[in-house]
Design goal:
Number of strands: 5
Structural class: alpha+beta
Oligomer: single chain
Strand content: 15-25%
Strand order of the largest sheet: 4-1-5
Shape: elongated
Distance between the termini: 65 Å
Helix content: 25-40%
Largest sheet: 3 strands, antiparallel
Length: 118
């Protein structure tokens, strides 16, 4: 598996044109790539004294892909909510069932069926 390297720029959204003509879009100041030529070129820019760029370091494939990262965060949040929901010390209080706006409705068996005749 190839490495992903994350680079940062001081400008929040900018473009870098590589020697081969490809455009690298820094979105919110971040550019992630796993292409060795792009990594080498950006490292050369930093070594040459370009103060706008800096290397953050290597990241995993999940961290490199924003959609995967959001999905992973959503799953973590869901699991935390589930843990909270089944925690016996997390008292959610009680609700009086008589305060329901539908009075006298105990089960769905008490509801009369509605049929439409054509």
């Amino acid at each position: 598996m190839s490495q992903y390297v994350k680079f940062k720029t001081q400008v929040s959204s900018s473009k870098y044109i590589f020697r081969n003509g490809k455009i690298g879009n820094f979105v919110q100041g971040i550019y992630v790539t796993n292409l060795p030529k792009e990594i080498e070129e950006l490292r050369e820019e930093i070594a040459a004294g370009n103060t706008y760029f800096s290397e953050i370091g290597e990241v995993s494939a999940v961290e490199a892909d924003p959609v995967s990262r959001l999905k992973e965060d959503a799953i973590k949040e869901f699991i935390e909510r589930q843990k909270s929901a089944v925690n016996p010390s997390n008292d959610m209080g009680t609700t009086a069932q008589s305060s329901s706006p539908v009075v006298g409705l105990a089960t769905s068996g008490n509801v009369t069926a509605v049929t439409v005749k054509k």
